[in-house]
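_Per-residue structure_
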Amino acid sequence: MSSYVLDALALKTTVDHDLAYYDREVTQDYLHAVEFTPLAQIDAPGLIAALQTLRQRRRQVKDLSLLLNAFDTAFDRL
């Protein structure tokens, strides 16, 4: 097995933790801000830009997580 794959698989736990963090903490922070802040006080364009950046970063982490899970499953079978 390539050392690149082994190095990547070594990061699997960290990547899975980061994905859970985005899902659990960061996204919830934005939702709570929207829930408890009067709409007139929300900078809608700024919030949308921040959410877009957050979701794009989360997508990168999720894509990496899916790839690492596929590697882990494939190499587990060998």
Notes: The chain has a mean pLDDT of 90.
